[in-house]
């Protein structure tokens, strides 16, 4: 099941590593064949590998040596030039393309059986008649029940070529015999717009989790829906968004900026400058825009925030962003693997580079979250370090700074309740989602007549449910985790997880946003006519 909410700050490095894999790409065409001419440096490496392959005293997997060599070289360049092994290319490509071929379910291995959490709306499984709670015991006659298969192995059993059929045998509560469904595999979107709904009568909310090929199309559909619902203001939530395609970020900015406004420019080591300008295509140029960012908003997210801030458009709300101002290009290495190599820097319209320093090495660079936490800047905007030498001024006279992320116009401190490490760890590890599923399984029919709107307003998680969750963690999952200090936060997360499994379509975000300080700040700014737009 896709996890769609706040990544665990403790694992910031891992989250940003994902962003590196998918972040900031300007041009994915490999035009580098002409560069690979013979020279002594390359010959030296090739000869060493040949010596090891043919003459070393033990058998060695020279492919692994090459991988180590490539990684070692890249680690000496910058933190965002990375190697993508051949075995990872498909999943990386799917993530960036924004879809894959499958049957369209999210599932949970419950009591050694693949159990459907919910079907993807309008997907192959929903059309075939599968429902949440169904247990898949065979696929094309191959028994899946009780087998010691990883989630990756199970996915392989269900994925296949587009248009091919898979016959599933399903056990469903209330039926004496297994049911059979023929499901035609199809293109399943990897959603990058998590939620789009109205916060108030005129303020719409859009949450984007990354910038993939499909993101602009999703975003445009969401924006159009909200405009039809009466939105004259948009809260664009880019928190925990590690980035993606630069071109997609430009298209989204274009929806808000007037014609011919500079969005950004890039510069390579030869000094070549390429500029990107807004066009006449934008549909929300007269609307009011708020952009929500935090310390995990990186790359393309920062392009959006920086372009709007430097053009005096909208209000940036939250905490200082990650600070990635480097652009990568993907280059194939000939064996199915590839390298994402940094080829230029990007600059915001005022000329700011928001790239953080990496002169102390990659380890220090990716541990920057801890430095911010220790310094106190996540709780107090006065603790944000700025350099007067990197001061820039917008056309309307607002002072902005380069050198390490986008500093928001309106600061919102870290919520140490909703964003504490215990609760976010429980969510990230799947404990909350798994518990919510098992809770639903006790009496799924009790929710069949409850609308999403009624659930959001009236359904409450009781103290008894929280006690059950504690038992679930200690007895079923054999952990020693205690969350007594965060009981109310746990209730909200459990309610959100149940909403997601019952209703999908952004219900998770709608629940969590009820207790979100940053969203509430945006609502207050929207209601205040003197806000910074």
Task: Write a concise synopsis of the structure shown.
It holds the Pfam family PDZ_2. With 533 residues, the chain is α+β, with helices and mostly antiparallel strands.
How would you portray this structure in words?
- The chain is an alpha+beta fold and 533 residues long.
- The chain folds into three domains: 99-189, Pdz3 Domain; 193-415, Alpha-Beta Complex (2-enoyl-CoA Hydratase, Chain A, domain 1); 421-515, no CATH class.
- Helix content is 35%, strand content 20%.
- The strands form five sheets. Strands 3, 4, 5, 6, 7 and 8 form a six-stranded antiparallel β-sheet that branches. A six-stranded mixed β-sheet has the order 10-11-12-15-16-21, sandwiched between helices.
- Helix 7 (215-228) packs parallel to helix 8, helix 8 runs parallel beside helix 9 (300-310) and helix 13 crosses helix 16.
- The radius of gyration is 25 Å and the shape is globular.
- It starts with 11 loop residues before the first helix and ends in a 6-residue tail after the last helix.
